[in-house]
Write a structure and sequence with these properties.
Blueprint lengths: L13 H10 L16 E3 L3 E2 L9 E3 L5 E7 L7 E7 L6 E5 L11 E4 L5 E4 L5 E4 L7 E4 L5 E4 L9 E2 L7 E2 L3 E3 L4 E7 L2 E11 L5 E5 L12 E2 L7 E5 L5 E5 L9 E3 L11 E7 L5 E7 L17 E6 L20 E4 L8 E4 L4 E3 L9 E3 L10 H4 E7 L1 E2 L6 E5 L4 H9 L6 E5 L2 E5 L6 E3 L6 E7 L14 H12 L9 H38 L7 H4 L4 E2 L2 H7 L6 E4 L3 E8 L5 E8 L7 H13 L9 E7 L2 E7 L6 H5 L7 H21 L4 E2 L8 E3 L5 E3 L6 E2 L32 H16 L10 H4 L1 H10 L11 H5 L1 H14 L10 H8 L15
Parallel strand pairs: 25-34, 36-40
Antiparallel strand pairs: 1-10, 2-7, 3-4, 4-5, 5-6, 7-8, 8-9, 10-11, 11-12, 13-22, 14-19, 15-16, 16-17, 17-18, 19-20, 20-21, 22-23, 23-24, 25-26, 27-28, 29-35, 30-34, 31-33, 32-33, 32-35, 37-38, 38-39, 39-41, 40-41, 42-45, 43-44
Helix pairs in contact: 4-5, 10-11, 10-16, 11-15
Length: about 850
């Protein structure tokens, strides 16, 4: 029997599906083999993540949603069976079957001959089952609802994703009594998370923390207080979210209305309501591509914007059991925006995230646990954290009132069980570890007194043992007053003289030893040993001596180049099969702040591993000598390639541009701690033996901790012509400064000319300005002049120029992230015209 007409069983044209793939920012394998593309799944059909002879999924008739195998990483090594918004950047999951158990290539979704819908992994083990039999087909509706239909035409699904939600509701979806939404573990981990929204059997809508391994509920932290009613949580097709009470069928007096009546229209915006990993239930909107009414509305950026948050401030979430919004020993800081719909989880001083990529696991002390066998007062002190608290008496093992702050500190300092104390209004709460429900905001008040070890690294407490000679001298002197016979007097006098001489010689010996120790320590200060900082030595970097590098570089005789912070020399390690190296020697001028600069650079580069970054072999930190040892890049810098006598081919320039972008994406989003380079320019892009582009010179890089997102303009860094405008303003510096510099370099790669050419006509002297004018005048071909290969590839050329122009917008918020820039460069996402451009 044919499926009902409202399921839109007719497949869309193959060209539409192809364009859909390009605009979804998904790898080609996600909707593979377009000749087999379908918009429903019939008995005997098999879907797999890519593979010939089967399709990986399909789009809804409207193109707003897609269903199939969603890749969890760029390498296409693991997948979720999922439904997602197809036109958002990035694509946004709305339902998934196997969040706790992603599958690998070789897995498949089967609609068997018996009408069972089953997901099987590459070992042939069943991962998920819709628990239906007799299904005729499965289809994805325009509302984003995946349905499994029977052979009759009643129109009632045997199973539907709207009836088995994960963490998200969509317009038209209803959460009936007993139904739940479960948060993900994190934004990037779709395993079952720590919070749940429950339409309870009693008639209350509640938010409750959940024990992740067992699923046991903790104490409710938000509820409607509507017990005794027949209830449904309704997300209307017009985008209103309300809790229906009684038998009513719409929002009104018999409902708790959550969404404001002025909520954006579903005609112009995508809507979703999601319980997020931080425990808040939020409604989001995203402008639909091409909507005429919002195309020029700057107040709606091309991203998901929260229009509702329950609770409004997640940092106010308090749970008697469990860690709260953030992990144990972590604390929550709300956003400074008017809606306070976001927050950050931070570690207190001298604590670090156990796993920076999984911050919900909390923070651990950077020091050894306290020992009850030691004197606490001599080893520990306090860090004061204003307007910060870890509340609830379950973690208080002593409370004092009335006391002053000094006594509160003393009470915590003298015992080994106390990890922190909270002082407010004469009360002192002593806390044991781990701490929970941490929050820091102006409304908290009081302060936390965090107990941390003193920074006492000197050995001034060390004492020499008393000399045995001194002891005997003292004893003999005390007994020399005994009355003796006259004939023994000369012996006593002689003995006294000998003892006195011995004491003198002993004093001289002690003085000589002390002087030798002082001289030794003085020499140690003048000739500082190689750094033993464990955070550096633990990075598998080789520690070089200065003499070793001096010999390797033939006394630093072969200079490769120099910059503001140092000079680079070519060298060879004869002990390692004549390995060629590049040694960067920091200038003395930089040594005034080189301790931090050097340490940051070593830590940053030592933790990076990417094919588009120059690899660091090791370092030298000996006395006043600080050097970095890199792999040698045989093909020089991008400068010599672009601005040399021969113009590189268009295909080579395209490849290099993408390689630079991928290296920056890694620095910004994929390495363990975000790195802002701050000086992206052709001189800092090197080419290896295979002419692969590698980003180099992290001497100006600003290493950010995991709990930071911005740094301030303490001093302007970078090179004229590549520096983002915000360096010259009293505004925060973010990774968008690198995006701006990349945009400039991208234009140089396209045009094979420098960003500033003072010998050119005034309208062409500044490349960024000229590119904007060429776009306005619809004369992009002028930028490449007689480059026939580039002109023959006009679609890609236009796309690259548009990306460069977006990257060089004055307002940092208008610039794309490096991830989105790559998607646009690769043609996975459509590139819109900037607002000031009137024609393409």
């Amino acid at each position: 029997m044919a499926p009902p007409s409202y399921l839109n069983a007719v497949p869309p044209p193959p060209l539409l599906l192809y364009l859909l793939v390009l605009s979804h920012a998904l790898p080609v394998t996600t909707l593979a083999d377009q000749s087999h593309a379908v918009n429903n799944m019939t008995r005997g059909t098999t879907l797999s993540p890519g593979g010939s002879g089967s399709t990986a999924g399909w789009a809804s008739a409207s193109g707003d949603f897609a269903f199939g195998f969603y890749p969890l990483d760029r390498s296409n090594s693991s997948f979720l069976l999922a439904v997602w918004f197809a036109n958002t950047v990035p694509p946004t999951l709305t339902w998934f079957a196997n969040g706790d158990n992603p599958v690998q290539p070789g897995s498949r979704l089967d609609l068997t001959a018996d009408g069972e819908l089953s997901l099987v992994d590459h070992f042939g083990r069943e991962v998920w089952n819709a628990n239906v039999t007799g299904a005729a087909y499965a289809a994805l509706l325009d509302a984003g609802n995946l349905v499994v239909m029977g052979p009759n035409s009643s129109g009632v699904p045997l199973w539907q994703s709207f009836g088995s939600p994960t963490d998200t509701m969509l317009p038209g979806q209803v959460l009936t009594r007993g139904a739940t939404l479960r948060s993900r573990l994190s934004d990037s981990d779709c395993s079952k998370g720590r919070f749940q929204l429950v339409n309870s059997e009693t008639g209350d809508l509640v938010l409750v923390p959940v024990n992740v391994p067992t699923g046991m509920f903790y104490d409710v932290y938000w509820q409607t207080g509507t017990a005794g009613n027949q209830t449904q949580l309704v997300f209307s097709e017009s985008g209103l979210l309300y809790f229906n009470l009684g038998d009513g069928h719409g929002a009104g007096s018999a409902a708790l209305n959550f969404t404001a009546s002025a909520s954006p229209s579903t005609a112009d915006f995508y809507h979703r309501a999601t319980i997020d990993p931080d425990g808040a239930f939020r409604q989001y909107v995203y402008p639909k591509p091409g909507s005429a009414r919002i195309r020029n509305a700057s107040s709606w950026p091309e991203e998901w914007t929260a229009v509702l948050s329950i609770p409004a401030d997640v940092c106010r979430i308090q749970t008697w059991t469990g860690s709260g919004t953030c992990g144990f020993n972590s604390y929550c800081r709300p956003s400074s925006g008017p809606n306070q719909t976001s927050s950050a989880c931070l570690c207190p001083p001298q604590y670090s995230f156990i796993d920076p990529s999984r911050q919900y696991r909390g923070c651990a002390p950077d020091f050894a646990p306290q020992s009850c066998a030691t004197d606490q007062a001599s080893l520990y002190d306090f860090v004061e954290m204003a307007d910060t608290d870890w509340p609830f008496a379950v973690y208080d093992y002593d409370v004092y009132y009335p006391v002053d702050e000094a006594r509160c500190k003393d009470y915590c300092l003298r015992v080994c069980f106390c990890g922190a104390a909270v002082y407010r209004d004469g009360y002192c709460w002593k806390k044991k570890l781990p701490l929970s429900n941490g929050r820091s905001a102006s409304y908290v008040g009081g302060k936390t007194l965090l107990k941390v070890p003193k920074n006492n690294n000197n050995n001034s407490h060390y004492m020499f043992p008393p000399s045995p000679l001194n002891t005997s001298t003292s004893t003999s002197t005390s007994t020399s007053t005994v009355v003796v016979e006259k004939e023994e007097g000369e012996l006593i006098l002689a003995g006294s003289l000998l003892i006195g001489i011995s004491g003198f010689l002993n004093a001289v010996l002690v003085a000589a030893i002390a002087l030798a120790i002082c001289n030794y320590r003085s020499r140690q200060k003048k000739q500082k040993p190689v750094s033993t900082d464990p955070t550096i030595s633990g990075l598998n970097l080789r520690v070089f001596s200065y003499r070793e590098l001096e010999e390797a570089t033939d006394a630093f005789g072969d200079e490769l180049g120099s910059g503001a912070f140092g000079t680079v020399y070519k060298g060879m390690l004869a002990s390692e099969s004549n390995t060629v190296i590049a040694v960067k020697k920091l200038r003395d001028l930089a040594l005034r702040e080189s301790e931090n600069e050097f340490t940051n650079e070593v830590r940053a580069i030592g933790r990076t591993h990417h094919k588009n970054l120059v690899r660091l072999f090791g370092f030298c930190n000996e006395g006043t000598h600080r050097l970095l040892v890199y792999e040698y890049m045989s093909n020089g810098s991008l400068t010599s390639l672009l601005f040399g006598p021969e113009k590189p081919s268009w295909s080579k320039r395209v490849r290099i541009a993408l390689e630079i972008a991928r290296g920056l994406l890694y620095l910004h989003d994929e390495c363990s701690a975000q790195i802002i380079h701050c000086d992206i320019k052709p001189q800092n892009i090197l080419l290896d033996d295979n002419s692969v582009a590698r980003i180099a010179d992290f001497g100006l890089a600003k290493l950010l901790k995991n709990d930071q997102t911005r740094t301030s303009t303490l001093c302007i860094r970078g090179t004229r012509g590549y520096v983002a405008p915000e360096w010259f303003r009293n505004t925060a510096i973010t990774a968008k400064v690198d995006v701006y510099s990349f945009g400039v370099v991208l234009l140089e790669i396209i045009c094979c000319r420098r960003s500033v050419e003072i010998d050119m006509a005034e309208d062409k002297a500044v490349l960024v300005h000229w590119a904007h004018e060429c776009l306005k005048d619809d004369k992009l071909d002028l930028l490449v002049e007689s480059d026939e290969a580039a002109l023959a590839d006009m679609t890609r050329l236009s796309r690259f120029i548009l990306v460069a122009i977006w990257c060089t917008q004055e307002d940092p918020s208008l610039r794309p992230s490096m991830q989105k820039a790559i998607q646009m460069l690769e043609g996975l996402v459509a590139v819109a015209l900037p607002a000031e451009s009137v024609r393409f």
